[in-house]
Design brief:
Number of strands: 0
Shape: elongated
Radius of gyration: 20 Å
Largest sheet: none
Order of helices and strands: HHHHHHHHHH
Distance between the termini: 77 Å
Length: 206
């Protein structure tokens, strides 16, 4: 019985710490409105169901906000959370998977399309290039070329490919800087996306 007040104080202290971390991280990543509320709700649900033991508050907050962004189609990649926390990509994604499993959440993977406008703004690309990137992603998805591919990697490859089509031609280095995706990955996605478009065109003409 004597431990109950102490345990409750600890729980309240951890909740206060979590809410402060949500405010900090959401503020730095400009996660607003419903997405921010959703992240808080996910954390509170984990707490109420006793699913937090053995995991740090900051790790779970980052994963909760990441899932909330996915749920509301807010373009925030795992790497952006890495840049604002002490955790690596693998840790955040594992925590997100854990949360989805224990809470029974059904949040679809992020779609590469949601990153295109953000990348386009950072690279000062014309709308025509962004629209072309969307068409390339549509074709790649029709050919299952993006299955299992990182959404940011797919978006980066599509933007680079679209730039070659429209003539804006952003460099691989500039796309890499804007997306935190390696130039090696960009080249690979670029080749896969153009191959998928070629196959889709062949299917239509055949």
């Amino acid at each position: 019985m004597s431990d109950q007040p102490s345990n409750e104080k600890t729980r309240l202290r951890n909740l206060k710490r979590a809410l402060e971390e949500i405010d900090r991280l959401a503020g730095e990543l400009n996660i607003l409105g419903d997405a921010r509320t959703r992240g808080t709700s996910i954390y509170r649900q984990l707490r109420e169901e006793g699913k937090l033991p053995g995991r740090s508050v900051e790790e779970i907050v980052a994963a909760s906000l990441y899932l909330a962004c996915r749920d509301h189609e807010i373009p925030r990649s795992p790497d952006e959370f890495v840049a604002h926390t002490k955790y690596d990509r693998t840790t955040i994604l594992r925590a997100a998977t854990y949360i989805e499993e224990v809470l029974g959440l059904d949040i679809p993977p992020a779609n590469p399309r949601i990153y295109l406008d953000k990348i386009g703004d950072e690279l000062n690309l014309k709308q025509a290039t962004i629209e072309e990137a969307k068409k390339l992603i549509d074709a790649a998805e029709d050919e299952n070329a993006l299955n299992g591919v990182s959404p940011t990697g797919g978006a980066a490859g599509a933007i680079y490919a679209a730039g070659q089509v429209t003539g804006e031609q952003p460099t691989q280095a500039s796309v890499a800087d804007a997306t935190d995706v390696s130039q090696v990955t960009i080249r690979k996605r670029y080749q896969e996306i153009l191959q998928a478009r070629s196959e889709a065109t062949s299917d239509e003409s055949g």
